[in-house]
Amino acid sequence: MRMTKLTGKTLKNIEDEFNIESQKLLLRSAMFRNISPGVYSVLPFGIRAINKLLDLLSDQLEREGFQRVYIPSDIEFEKSVSLSLRNDMKSYKDLPKTIYDIFSSGREKIKIKDGLLRSKDFTTFRTCSFYENEELLLQGYENIIDFYKSKFCEMGLDIFSLKSYNEKNPADKADELIFTCGAGDRTIYSCDKCEFRTLEEVADFYVQQYETDDKEIEAVHTPDIKTIKELENFMNIKAENLAKTLLVKAGGEIVAVVIRGNRELNPYKLSSILNVPIRDINMAEYEEIDGNIETVPGFVGPVELEGVRIIVDKEITSVGALVTGANKKDYHLKNVKYGRDFVGDLIAEVSYIMDNDKCPVCGGSLDKEYGIDLGKILSLGKITDVKNLQYKDKEGKSKGIYGASSYIDIYKLLSIIVEKHHDEDGIIWPIKVAPYHVIISILNTKKEEQVKLGENIYRELKSRNIDVILDDRKERAGAKFYDADLLGIPIRIVVARGASENKVEFKLRWKNEKEELDVNEAIEKVLKLLKIY
Amino acid sequence: MRMTKLTGKTLKNIEDEFNIESQKLLLRSAMFRNISPGVYSVLPFGIRAINKLLDLLSDQLEREGFQRVYIPSDIEFEKSVSLSLRNDMKSYKDLPKTIYDIFSSGREKIKIKDGLLRSKDFTTFRTCSFYENEELLLQGYENIIDFYKSKFCEMGLDIFSLKSYNEKNPADKADELIFTCGAGDRTIYSCDKCEFRTLEEVADFYVQQYETDDKEIEAVHTPDIKTIKELENFMNIKAENLAKTLLVKAGGEIVAVVIRGNRELNPYKLSSILNVPIRDINMAEYEEIDGNIETVPGFVGPVELEGVRIIVDKEITSVGALVTGANKKDYHLKNVKYGRDFVGDLIAEVSYIMDNDKCPVCGGSLDKEYGIDLGKILSLGKITDVKNLQYKDKEGKSKGIYGASSYIDIYKLLSIIVEKHHDEDGIIWPIKVAPYHVIISILNTKKEEQVKLGENIYRELKSRNIDVILDDRKERAGAKFYDADLLGIPIRIVVARGASENKVEFKLRWKNEKEELDVNEAIEKVLKLLKIY
């Protein structure tokens, strides 16, 4: 490519203040143009950068037997793929079946300061895989995580996967691919002693054991006391010694959830435990409670509570003397003890992590970090919502099909690469993902020998299938150096005064040193470098 | 590609009855799968066919200096491109600027029986070009038409361009690319004597001259006569001797349009003439007329009509004695003559063509045909709706920029290619657009020598960069022949009994003859064929 032909002039300054630096570079380097708040078009240099990433992902997946399809947006992705391929998965011989798809779409909620991390339009690289049974599904699921991790590592990124909430199939597993970054909008807790790391939404934490004594349960008259705060004051106790009993509507069922008074219910965890989509998890309305369940709003407690399943947060089982509602107007109970005074239908971890909670693995302290979620892998378990999605096994028996899907946000991927690899002058592309490997700058286009040598090197490198860009513009030398640094092409060859003696200046974008080389030496060095990386 | 690895099994039958045959073949060959009414996903063979078409278009455009960008859908395409590139077009040296874009989107109105010609999702290949002045714009506009025509010709299609309505810029020119096809939904009139062809919406026709006499204008009492039909009976005349005067709201203005009584107003033509978008062309409401214009609804006529511009259909100027409304309740005028009794502010062709109208060029008879609109080219004229879209000319003077855009529907393009190139057994790909050039069928995969020879030819052709597919499935010979015909790969090499003597069967999809060839002869023949086409 010749820079005189490349559409998209670099910019010196960007007015917008972004949460992270890379967003400025994506605009200044003319990969993207902002055309209205949160809306970006992609210019040729950006198209090239994006296609490079897509090719790296696609090529590897194609080698692993994934095939590209195009899935329209009318129906949920996983369901559309299942419908499209169900006739191609009638026998165990047809499985596993693995596809990928590149999809551009628009989101409702944009965040202008996040730039391309949360722009109106985005491009998703998606996969969907089908397996014979759960074991093969889990294996395939891990393979997909490993595939992304290793590809992102090649792209110069440290990405880790964290357990996540599965919005397609709440009871099933999901992982998110996370890049840590101070300006990220996802909260991560990580142990300062062991390897434990968790996303806030699904964070488990260390459940402490408390000393208990065996005082008898006792009713206390608490007239007009309804809030935790009022109760704390009235009984002179701390919220953590209280047990809140929340009546929650989960799908069609009302359940009572018992958590410590100082905690918040975690709807993601409850959704997973009950396998009810999070949109169907809501606090029960007064009218829904009244009549069906024998209790009094404001005084709900787990002791002798009838008519609902009781879900007890694991922490509750280890606290000694609790204060709970008495299911009777103006009364609470004190010295309530799990196991003796009430039991749960289900014991689970259903409350949100708080600062100062400890590592659930080793009890170490947890540090808070922030991260950007680059993508997600979802287990679909056995797919039951698609008619006739069945295969015949070796014995000719009809069986259900298991699935997994994954999503990568390509604009985020590009942003993160630039965020990780830049300095104050511009981008520093890792060689593997560089839109061009070499930039040749003809410093003075009025000098015939410089133009001739520059053109020769350009032709030579092109003939060897090297991605090269030639700065043949009639610009000042300073502007050319400025743009070369901003665009971040890894290898720079400057054709200047030495041209008459076939000498060029050779520089790597990530190093300060330049060296003067003979043209052939320079070309050899390019070939060698590209072989190594 | 190995057929054992290719996702998407061919189908024997498709239940749906489509308007055109190709839609069945696109589904039967597993290029597309129908997942809900009007909604299709694209399977790997389809992805390959589409990418081939996109590559053919892109490669040629790239050679001509067009660069690929991605334009989001939030704002109108042409406006988005202008906003994206206005900083790159500040000098005459930056022009012309030409880009293209590949865009997938969904349409509101689907037509299930049209299959992929009007499916929910579709992919558009779009271009946008910017020029220094109108002359260069017109030249660029013609170049784009020529580019598409020649590419489509290479793809084995006869496509012609017809003048069309320009919905972006009604006063400017537009062309549609049309494929004639009995089941198409666009009506075309074509002259049986000369080369004239026109789309119904914008069709001009031969305006006949009528003999006139010079009778005096005369008022006729026509109590309660309001419709053309009533007037025809009452006055015992034919509708064509009547002049309808329609009060039309065009944007903010009310205009009177005078056309013959037997004609319909053509809103496309009126939109172009007045340069008012068609959505803003409506019959004026009674309340809008009353008061402002001195007339009586039902008795509107052009004679002494004040307060509105009068637009006179060209045909009206050549008819002798007309009957018109008298702008007075219960009165019409007869013997009205254009020029003597009234004049128009504008004379133009504003009525719809009718069957039996003659060719406007030579007066010959017009035949009705049907066609499919594959794409459109639009002149944008001087672009005025984008702030700061200006360049400095050689003298440093600020000037406006001229533009043109074009749209091609890729699913339609693929459909039309298949429609044109198929027989009762399946598709017959023209070599230029064939997803694969060669199919090698190993007839009996249990015979080691057949497998070995098939694999050898496959490797050999792949190493020569030939797009080849290997049918290595454990299917019956009949199924392999059936699929090879259905998929329509141009060159078929069958490895059968002759394998032990290095003989294969060679067949071209579009010919009936087969020949037995030595393997090397067969490979030579493939190379020779691909060089010719």
From TrEMBL, chains A, B:
Tell me which residues make up the Anticodon-binding domain. Answer: 438-528
Bilayer-crossing regions:
none
One GO biological process term is:
prolyl-tRNA aminoacylation
- The secretion signal range is none
| InterPro entries, sorted | aa-tRNA-synth_II/BPL/LPL, Anticodon-bd, Anticodon-bd_dom_sf, Pro-tRNA_synthetase, ProRS_anticodon_short, YbaK/aa-tRNA-synt-asso_dom_sf, YbaK/aa-tRNA-synth-assoc-dom
Molecular functions per Gene Ontology: aminoacyl-tRNA deacylase activity; ATP binding; catalytic activity, acting on a protein; proline-tRNA ligase activity; transferase activity
Task: Name the UniProt key words of this record, in alphabetical order.
Answer: Aminoacyl-tRNA synthetase, ATP-binding, Cytoplasm, Ligase, Nucleotide-binding
Query: Is Manganese a UniProt keyword of this protein?
Result: no
Instruction: List the GO terms this entry assigns under cellular component, sorted alphabetically.
Output: cytosol
Tagged with keyword Cytoplasm: yes
Where in this chain does the record put each YbaK/aminoacyl-tRNA synthetase-associated domain? Answer: 222-336
The source's superkingdom equals Bacteria
Q: What is this protein called?
A: Prolyl-tRNA synthetase
Classification from the root reads: Bacteria, Bacillati, Bacillota, Clostridia, Peptostreptococcales
